[in-house]
Design brief:
With 393 residues, the chain is α/β, with parallel strands linked by helices. It contains 12 helices and 13 strands. Strand 6 and strand 7 form a beta hairpin. The radius of gyration is 21 Å and the shape is globular. The structure holds pyridoxal-5'-phosphate (PLP). Residues 16, 67-69, 94, 141, 143, 145, 170, 172-173, 196 line the site of pyridoxal-5'-phosphate.
């Protein structure tokens, strides 16, 4: 069958982008106004202020006009200057990948790398910062989504403050689903977006930049301007009294506002709890079914994505295909060096609802059994329900 004839999935349990909330989709369908019309300038400022409220910051964040990879590259280009030594933390594909961007702009990249089922320990960071007082910038991915593992950014951020190092955090697939924010983590550049836990669409980045980071950007002779990679261009654009450097994605901004409204109305803590409960039910179910979690220790498993080792003797692609063909349920594949080793079950935004843990168990277990593997689906469902019931009864 040609790819053009493939049916749309019934349920998407991917590690992002997520199936956006209906309210977001309705907002995307609103009238597209002239960007310099005062109405849209008002929408943009209101959206930036709601983003600040959601991020727990005083200053409205940057809203950059591309999905969060744009913001990661823009952060490297803007913050990292030719004299800077960068400490890059790599516990997965995204953390590793940031080091390649950093290398384009800096004097030297120093790297701490751990196996991609593990997390960076603050002690490792402390040792390197003590040995290398010339380090100016540290970069870390909070939730390295291809691994489903979490790095301790609050502890790492405190070390950065002690050593006067600027910290860049990729929180794209954790912020909005877990308790992480730019202020508590002491982040200087904190990057997220609508298309993961917020249940929005891929098209924008949301970036908090600290005053210290702005000073560093202002002093960087190579910081881009009049460029899609510029953070400086958009610095003041949040204000309805300022001009946009280029046309903003009007529809995407409307969608972001709707996603932020949902998040703020439900209340961040309630949102985090439902992500955490879904993940816990999913992990317990997967273990009871006889499968093995990918993270080396359960404490570092993310609340927004559960990663499962591909069972011995089976192929990841065949499992995901069977799940899609038989049940219409879609999971994410591994990425980069992890392709074929694990399967990823997203709990982000609309599908961060505990009952979806039982959907994941049914579809993954059903696919594995169909291919001749052995998964005890009944035990898995019972274990997941026990977690949910214990939290709610
Ligand atoms: C999703 C994601 C991004 C954005 O990148 P895409 O893969 O292009 O969607 C960046 N960082 C992390 C950790 C992500 O999960």
């Amino acid at each position: 069958m040609s790819r053009q004839d493939v049916k749309i999935p019934t349920i998407t349990l991917s590690a992002g982008p997520v199936d956006a909330y209906p309210a977001v989709l309705r907002a995307l369908g609103r009238t597209v106004t002239y960007d310099f019309d005062p109405y849209f300038q008002g929408v943009f400022e209101r959206t930036a202020r709601k983003a600040a409220q959601a991020l727990n910051t005083d200053q409205p964040p940057l809203i950059l006009q591309g999905e969060p990879v744009l913001a990661l590259e823009a952060a490297a280009a803007s913050l990292i200057g030719p004299e800077d030594v960068v400490l890059n933390l790599a516990s997965g594909e995204y953390g590793k990948g940031f080091g390649y961007w950093a290398a384009r702009y800096c004097k030297e990249v120093v790297e701490i790398e751990v196996p991609y089922n593990d997390a960076i320990a603050p002690d490792q960071v402390r040792d390197v910062l003590e040995q290398r007082p010339d380090i100016a910038v540290l970069s870390v991915c909070h939730h390295d989504t291809p691994s489903g593992t979490i790095n301790p950014v609050n502890e790492i951020g405190a070390l950065c403050r002690q050593h006067d190092v600027l910290m860049i955090v990729d929180a794209v697939s954790s912020w909005g689903g877990m308790d992480v924010d730019p202020i508590t983590s002491h982040s200087d550049v904190f990057i997220t977006g609508p298309n993961k836990c917020l249940g929005g669409t891929p098209g924008l980045s949301v970036v908090h930049v600290s005053d210290r980071a702005w000073d560093h950007i202002d002093a960087n002779p190579n910081a881009p301007f009049a460029s899609m990679l510029s953070m400086t261009d958009w610095r003041k654009a949040w204000s309805a009294d300022e001009k946009f450097p280029f046309t903003p994605s009007v529809a995407e901004v409307n969608g972001l506002e709707a996603a932020l409204d949902l998040y703020l109305e439900e209340g961040p803590e309630t949102v985090w709890e439902r992500h955490a409960l879904t993940a816990r039910a999913c992990r317990e179910g997967m273990k009871a079914m006889g499968l093995t979690l990918w993270p080396a220790r359960e404490e570092i498993a993310a609340d927004t994505c559960t990663t499962i080792r591909v069972p011995e003797g089976l192929e990841d692609e065949a499992i995901r295909q069977a799940s899609r063909d038989l049940y219409g349920v879609v999971f994410s594949a591994g990425r980069g060096s992890l392709v074929g080793k694990l399967i990823r079950i997203g709990h982000m935004g609309p599908v961060a609802e505990p009952v979806y843990a039982t959907v994941a168990i049914t579809a993954l277990g059903g696919a594995i059994n169909h291919l001749g593997g052995s998964a005890d689906i009944g035990a898995g469902i019972n274990a997941a329900l026990a977690v949910i019931n214990a939290a709610r009864v």
